[in-house]
Structure of Fe2OG dioxygenase domain-containing protein:
Amino acid sequence: MASSSWDMSNMFGSMKIDLTGIIAGSTNNDNAYVPIIDISSLTVNGMDKKKTIEKISKACEEVGFMVITGHGISQEVIDSMWSITGEFFDLAEDQKAKSMTMTSDYPYGYEKGEVLSAGKDKEKGETVERLPDFKETFTIGPNNQDSGMPARVWPEEPKELASIYKRYYEAMEGLSGVLLKAMAVALDMPENWFEDKIDHHMCALRALNYPDQSSSPPLPGQTRAGAHTDYGSLTILKSGGPGLQVRKDIDGRDDWVDVPHVGDGFVINLGDLMRRWTNDKWSSTLHRVVNPPQDGKNHRRQSVAFFHNLNGDAVVSTIESCRDEEGGSGYEDIVAKDFLMMKHLASVKNVVKEEEGEEGKEEL
Ligand SMILES: O=C(O)CCC(=O)C(=O)O
Ligand SMILES: [Fe+2]
């Protein structure tokens, strides 16, 4: 379904968003690159899942990104999440700042001007300081002490935010379970193979607001979100408009391709842990969010990302079907929480893990 069918007034409350403009920085309109996959066969009992799983498998291997429709998440759950998030970001700065978490261990709570973006410049091969992303975020972790993560902290306002976020988080837990079952089969493993690795997971739900730039334009070189890969197993993203791009090799040259914006869909992408787990068979692809056209119109953009992370104590050992003929792998075993913290602390300290072949910042 095309983005024009997206009911923005519903999603943004009273905000007026113009989606007709061409996104600045967009370099390639290869609409077919990121596939749109109807996953209803995964959620409806008795339907043949084979074809859907084949499409997911191909997308994981070749792109690391896909857009899913037919996911079965109630529109009401999505809409309420969307409008309460808009209300939160509309609050005065000092009100939002009360939810700031003063620790660099876990990026939970409210955050503005994230400076995680130092990284290696792919073209020049040198380490560069990047400007903070032009965005603000609010993040919660799991509602489960067994996860080993700190308890959730809620903003005072809006009052209903906590119950709405809990509900959306649970819906995302369910959807990630459905996707991981399909992914297990795609990797020639039993359907329930991921289950005991995710039953006290460390998933994070992050709402992102990319403010209107017409009244305070970005600094030269500053973007909504700098090029990065995500850390975890997979990310489920609901976005309110175009602007997200993925890196693609086009004729031996790195280029950027728009991720199609599908109103009732979710963008799914794999993170570095999944890439490592699959011994690079599956891809964790660089992506970024470009600035809107600087045309004086209000192009505020909102999105909500669910970062799926494994149980902290899960051992990530190359999946059987992804090993070479002798059973070997390019990666040592690693405990999921160590991997996550290594990624997070490396990005906070602006360190780039060269042996992982990664660059840019990453998200928890
Ligand atoms: O807002 C978006 O479309 C993408 C955000 C993203 O990539 C992230 O937060 O990791
Ligand atoms: Fe991301």
About this structure: Residues 279 and 331 are 7 Å apart (CA to CA).
